[in-house]
Amino acid sequence: MSVTDVDPTTGESTPHRSTSPTDRYTPRQILVGVAIGVLLLQLGFITSYVAAFHQPTPRDIPIAVVADPGLPAGTDRQVVDRLNAIAGHPVQARVAATTYQVRTLISDREVMGGYLVAASGPDTLITASGAGSSAATALEDIFTRVDAAQGRTFDVRDEVPVGIHDNRGLSGFYLSIGWVVGGYLLAAAIGLLIGAPRTLREAGLHTALMAVYALLSGFLGALIAANLLGTFTGHLLPLSLLGAGVVFATGMFTMGLRALIGILAVPLAILIFVVLGNPSAGGAFGSNVLPEFYAAIGSWITPGAGTEGVRSIVYFHGTGVGQPIVTLVTYALVGLVTVFACTARTARRGRVH
Fold first, then answer.
1. Is the separation of the CB atoms in 87 and 63 below 8 Å?
2. pTM for this one?
C-alpha cells in the first residue's frame, strides 16, 4: 500500500517519500563513510587479535601442591612459597592434603592442575587439558624450568584429557563461534531487509522468529558436533540448550542495538562479538595466558560464554556452567527490553503524528 501526502496549495495527492539517516548525504559521502567504517573495523580486528595472541604469558594459573607422607613436614608449604615467588606470578599455588583432594579440586574447577612432590623418583604434574590446553601446556613449561633448577624430574598425568576428536580442545570454541555468527547474522539481516519493528506485534514476531531459529540452530549445531562428527558424543541435549541460549542472546542483543541506534548496530555487533569476543573467548589461549584485558572481558561476551559452557558440559559434568548462563541471560534480557522499549516509543510517536 502506497502512502500519499496532500499538497496544501493544489489539493493534489503526491507520493510520500520515506526518509532515512542517509538521505542527507550524497552517494559519494556515503561511500567514503562506509569505506572509513570498514577500515576502522579491519584495523580493530587486526589490533585486537594480534594484541591478544602475539605474546601469551601464563598468569596466576591455580594449582594445588601435595607432598608424599615420607617427606619432612612443611615440604608442601615450602614448594608453594617457592612457586608463588616466581617472577611474573605464572601460577597461584595452594597446599592440598592428598592426591584425592587435588583431583577433587580439579573436578570442581577450583584449580587447573596439581603437583605431587615425591619422596623418591620423579614428581607428578597433574594437568586438565579439558579446562584449556594452553594452561596445561603452560604448566608443563613452567615446571620444566622449575624442576631443572632444582635438579628434579616429573611425569605428566592429564586428569581431564580432551576428547580424541577434540584437537587441543578447540572444537567447543568453533562450535560457539558458529552459534554466535548465526545469531548476529540473522538479527542483522532482519534489521537491514525489514528494519526495526514499528509495532509491539512486529517486535513479538521478530522475537518469536529469533527464538525458533535459536532452538533449531542450537540443536543442529550440537547434532553436527556430538553425533555426526562424534566430537562430543553423549551431550546432545545440554549442548543444544546451550547453543539455543548463545544464538538467542547474541541475536536479541543485536536486534536491541538495531532498534536503538539503527544501521550502526551491525558494525557495533561485529566489534563486540568478533573483534573483542572471539580473541577473548578462551579458544586457542585461555584466560590465564591472555593479556589481562581480554581475560577480564572474555566470560562476559557470548563467544566466551559459549566456549566455557561447552567445556563445562563436556568435560566437567556441568560444573562451571553458571557463569555462562548468567552472561547469556543478561544479553538476552538487555536485548528484549531494548527491542520492546524502543518499539513502544516508536508506536507512540506514530499515534501522535
1. no
2. 0.89
